[in-house]
Amino acid sequence: MDALIQQFFNLDIMSRALPLVLHGLWQTVVLCLIVIPLGLAGGLLFALVSLSRSRAIRYVMIVAIDFFRAVPPLVLLIFVYSGLPFAGIRLSPLTAVALAFFLNTSSYYGEIYRAGIESVGRGQWDAARSTGLNAFHTLASVILPQAVRNVLPDLVSNTVEVVKLTSIASVVALPELLYSADMARSITFNASPIVLAAAIYLVMLWPVVRLISRLERRIAS
Amino acid sequence: MNAFLETFFKPNLIAQYWPDILKGIVVTIEIAFAVVVCGLLLGLLLAVLRSFRITPINALIVVFVDMFRALPPLVIVLIVYFGLPNVGISIPSFAVLWLVLTLVLAAFAEEIFWAGILSVPKGQWDAGRSTGFAYLGTLAWIVLPQAIRLTVPPITNRTVAITKNTALGMVIGVPEILSQATSAQSFSGNATPLMLGALAYVILFIPVVALGRFLETRFAWRRS
C-alpha cells in the first residue's frame, strides 16, 4: 500500500513536477484554442459541402469523411509529422498537429452538423426563403441555430474527445500537458507526475462529462 | 508523380515490409477483438447492475464511468504501463493496452446501454412483471432487447472510435500496425511502410465506419 502511494501519489514529486506540468497545461490550452475552432469551422464546411445538390460531390465527401474517421488520429498525426518530410514537406509539431486534427475532427464535427441540419424540417427552408431571406441568411439565422440545438450534446461530447485527443501531440514532442508530465516521470522514475496530469484532465473535463450525461438524458426523455 | 511513388509506394519496400505490416494487422485484430468483446460485456453488465438502483454501487459505477470518459486513454496507458512495474506488478504491454481500452469502452458502453434502458417506457416493465416474469426475466426478455436495439448506432460508432486507439500501442511498444510501420520506416528511411500501415487501417476500419453510417440512417437514434 505504501509502495503504491509512493509510486502514484507521491506529493513531494508532484509538487516538484508542478511548474513543468502547469507549463504543459498552458500549452494544452493553447492547442485546444487552435484545434477546436478549426475543427468546428472545418466541420461546418464539410457538412455544407456534403449536403451539396451534386450527387458526385456528396459521394466524394462521404468517402473523404469516412476515410478520416477510419484512420486512427495517431496514425494520421505520425503520417503528417514524419511521413510528409520524405516528400519534402517538413512541418513543425504544432503545424502537424493542427493539420492532422483539422482533418480528423472536421470529419467528426461535419457528421454531427450534417445530422443536425437534416433534423431541421424542409419546411423551415421553404418558409425562410419565402419571407425573402437569401440562402445564406436562411442557413445562418434559421437552419443552423435549430440544427446546433438539436445536436448540442454530440457537439459538446465531441469537443471533450478533441481535448482528450490533444494528449497524442505528446508523441510528436509537442510540450503539452501529457508530454511535460511524462518528461517529469522519466526524470523521477515515478508515475506521480502523470497521475497529476490525469487529475488536471479530470478537473477540466469531469464537469463537462456530467453536463453531457444530463443533456443527453433531457433529450432522450 | 514518379517521386511521389518512390516516396510513398516504392515497390521493393512494399515487397520487403508487407509481412511485418501483416503481423501488425494480426496483433491489431487480436487486441481489437478482445477489447470489443470484453468492453461491451463489461459495459452491459454494469448497466444491468445499475438498474438495480443500489445507491452505493451506482455511485461507484458513475465515478468509474465518468473517470474513464474524462481521461485521455493515452494518459491511463502511461500510468498503468510505467507505474505498475514499480510496485511489483509487471504485465506485458499488449495486456496493458487491452486492459485500458476495455475499461474505456466499458465506461462509454455502460452510459449508452443505461440511456437505452431508461428510454424503455415504464409500462413495459409493468407489463412484463404482470405477465409473471421476475425482475431479471423482464430485464432480459422485455427491456434489454428494446434498449439494445436503440443503442446499436451509438455503440457501433463509439466502439469503432475506441478500437482505433489500438494505435496507441505504438507508444508502449505493442507490435501492432503503427509500431511495425514506424520501425520499418526508420529502418528503410522511406515513407512507404507508413503508407502501408495507414492503408491497413483504412482497409480494416472503413467497413465498420460505413456500417456505423448505415446503422445511423437505419435505426435513427433520436428522431423517432
Helix count from the secondary structure assignment of chain A: 10
Helix content of chain B: over 70%
CATH homology superfamily of chain A: MetI-like
Overall mean pLDDT of chain A stands at 93
CATH architecture of chain B: Orthogonal Bundle
CATH level 1 name of chain B: Mainly Alpha
CATH fold field value of chain B: MetI-like fold
Largest interchain contact: A-B, 57 and 56 residues
What this model shows, in words?
The complex is a heterodimer of chains A (221) and B (224). Chain A is mainly α. Chain A has a single domain, classed as Orthogonal Bundle (MetI-like fold). Chain A has 10 helices and no strands. In chain A, α4 (73-83) packs antiparallel against α5 (93-119) and α6 runs antiparallel to α7 (135-150). The longest helix of chain A is centred in the N-terminal third of the chain and has 40 residues, at 11-50. Chain A is elongated. Chain A starts with a helix and ends with a helix. The mean pLDDT of chain A is 93. By secondary structure, chain B is an all-alpha fold. Chain B has one domain (2-218): MetI-like (MetI-like fold, Orthogonal Bundle), CATH 1.10.3720.10. Chain B has helices at residues 2-8, 11-51, 55-70, 73-83, 93-119, 122-130, 135-163, 177-188, 192-218. The mean pLDDT of chain B is 91. At the A-B interface, α1, α3, α4, α8 and α9 of A face α1, α3, α4, α5 and α8 of B.
